Amino acid sequence: MRIEDLATRPDLRRPALELGVVGGEFLAHDVIGDLAASARLAARWPEFFLVLLENAVPVARAAAIPVAYPTDERTELPDHGWDGALLWAAQDVMDHREPTTLVALEVHVAERARGQGVAALALTELKNRARHAGLSRLVVPVRPTGKADHAAESIVDYAARRDKLGRPVDPWLRNHERLGARPVKIAPFAMTVIGTLDQWEEWTGVRLGDGLTSVPGGIAPVLGSVAQNLGVYVEPNVWLEHPL
């Protein structure tokens, strides 16, 4: 397995994106997520956008951003999770503030390469990059992949689930824990997507009614209002810290 980054191989950005997306199409409509556009990350922090190759073919990608944390104003990781980390990074660039922590935004492995330890390789390399950059922490707003089957369950209850061996039931949380990560806190509103009922039907194939509705690719239900012609999706994450 070979690991490249966009600083030395900018040509890999498009093939890396073609590996697919995490979650449902509707997640692309989180307005804060526009800050994580691959072209922006490649232009600003290409050394933290990794592409993993097997026989010269991309099989995984990982993207991370540096932020200043902790600071006098930032005493704990943001409740807004993934969105919050992106806002911090943008603020730090505008304020010319030196980063101290690396936030892993995404580790995505092609389906054909899963179960082979590829995600662990990517996370390990992000740790190495953080150390090399003089950063002191690696934190991850983890999207528990198995929660899609338990969308109505609270993130607190789901994250606390353990198997007979005492490991997290969720496979992605378990993978991080295996690498030494420890849970820090719940991010109850890590991503937010708002759209009209027609937009939600276009994104998911589901017509929302009043109240909560589970949609394909969601790890939490969408709250709909027919009177307001509105659907609101609020996705939770679990903040984990990897020791450096």
TrEMBL record:
Enzyme Commission number, as recorded: 2.3.1.-
Record InterPro entries: Acyl_CoA_acyltransferase, GNAT_dom
Signal peptide location: none
Alphabetized UniProt keyword annotations: Acyltransferase, Transferase
Presence of keyword Acetylation: no
Domain N-acetyltransferase span(s) in chain numbering: 92-147
Positions in coiled-coil regions: none
Gene Ontology MF, one: acyltransferase activity
Glycoprotein recorded as keyword: no
Name the record gives this protein: GNAT family N-acetyltransferase
Biological source species: Amycolatopsis rhabdoformis
